[in-house]
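Listing S7. Sequence submitted for prediction.
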Amino acid sequence: MLAGPECLKALAGVKVILFGVGGVGSWCAEALVRSGICRLTIVDSDDVSVTNINRQLPATSTSIGQPKVEVMGRRLRDINPDAEITVMQRQYSWEVKDEFDLGSYDYVIDAIDSLSCKVELIINAGAAGTTLFSALGAACKMDPTLIKTSSIWKTDKCKLGRFVRKRLRRRGFNGDFLCVWSDEESYVPTNKSVNGSLVHVTGVFGFVLAGLVVRDVVAKTAVILPSE
């Protein structure tokens, strides 16, 4: 009703791969499928843990110990039984990068926690020429109204963004892509060995990521529609 049948058809036709279905990625996956994305691959190596219950969509008292991608895959197919949902219980890294043909996807979404794996994905997605959207640091934040999107090179107030940019420069990467990030000052955790996260922040990160895909598809479809 909002975007029209041609946009809905376009959303159903694009191919998306999402890396990480935790506190950010799980909500992104749900929003994508509920918004009409029908060809989605989700990639994550972890099992559901009791510590995930405060912020991750697949985490419930009955799913502890199950692979996150399997739990999410069942949920996404329940939402749309006609969707092509592919699940891969893998961690993206340099060692397995050749298992992924990133160029075959219209959109690559990075919701990876590991810095080294995140940077590897960014570099390879850039080399493949596909559209990449990336989530930066959602931990130690409390105010979802301070979440924004910008180029990776304009994320100066994000600690994770600084680390990512430094490693990208070190490897000669000079491309660009949109990031979801927050310029809120990070809270210092009481347990300094663990970075706490809240669902009203991680969830918004995920929804914004999904929104970037949906808005891009709608914008491109509107461009090719005949003018009235």
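Caption to Listing S7: primary sequence and predicted structure tokens for the chain studied. DSSP finds six helices and seven strands in the chain. The chain has a mean pLDDT of 93.
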